[in-house]
Amino acid sequence: MINDKWISFRSQIKNPHLSALFTYRELVKDEWKRDFLATQAGFFDTSIIKPNQVHSSKVLFYNKNISKEDCDGTFSDNKRFVCSIQVADCMPIYFAHQYKHIFGLVHAGWRGLVNNIIINSGKLLLSKGYNLVDFDIIIGPSIQACCFEVGSDVISLFDEKFIKNKNNGKFKVKLQQYAFNHLREIGFLKNNISIVKDCTYCMPKKYFSFRREGQKAGRMIGLIGARNTQGF
Question: Which domain holds residue 27?
Fold first, then answer.
């Protein structure tokens, strides 16, 4: 479902108790902080997990207390918590268990991808006793291969099947496809993975883009958690 403030991924999540969203660039005003956004969107509670994102491959699980730590992925089984990230070209990747209150959200840029943030996410869930086939995955809007141009130093880190050579010393990388393949390889089911193919660089009226706007770029917010059924 789409409104003028954010994309709701409710329809892509089988678990009726969970929901997820991704904001448009319109929600950059000071009053739209993550806690207020969660309340307005109808999440069960507004105890927001706010990781200090450092383009790492570190993911953490929270179930009792929230602390702000250096990491780029958070997971929880506490219905009073909401996982959050902010992005401006990198991928937001949402994880929602199909029938338990288990959910997570990962900030996946190219550095995180090549350093196995997806594999680490799968390992974390397995270590908690969950089966990966029971999760719905949503890969949200991000920069696409049409606009993600890099040099040979970066391209050497990727398998050639995800690379397009521009014949000018530059290359384009299919980051979403790379993420999709990693998810499949570690045990998540193909039919449970949804991909939003919006390119944040190509769509300036909808999204911020660090590559397009540089340091002045704002950030979109991603949230996932338990839903207040009276609010949705």
Answer: 6-143+189-226
pLDDT, mean over the chain: 88
Of 93, 80, 156, the C-alpha closest to 121 is: 93
**CATH, residue 35:** 3.60.140.10
The residue assigned the tokens 């993975």 is 193
Whether 223 and 214 have beta carbons less than 8 Å apart is answered as no
Residue 48 and residue 96: Cα distance in Å, rounded?
17
Contacts of 115 (CB under 8 A, 6+ apart): 56, 57
Q: Residue 194 CA to chain centroid, in angstroms? A: 12
Across 228-232, average pLDDT? 54
Number of domains into which the chain is organized: 1
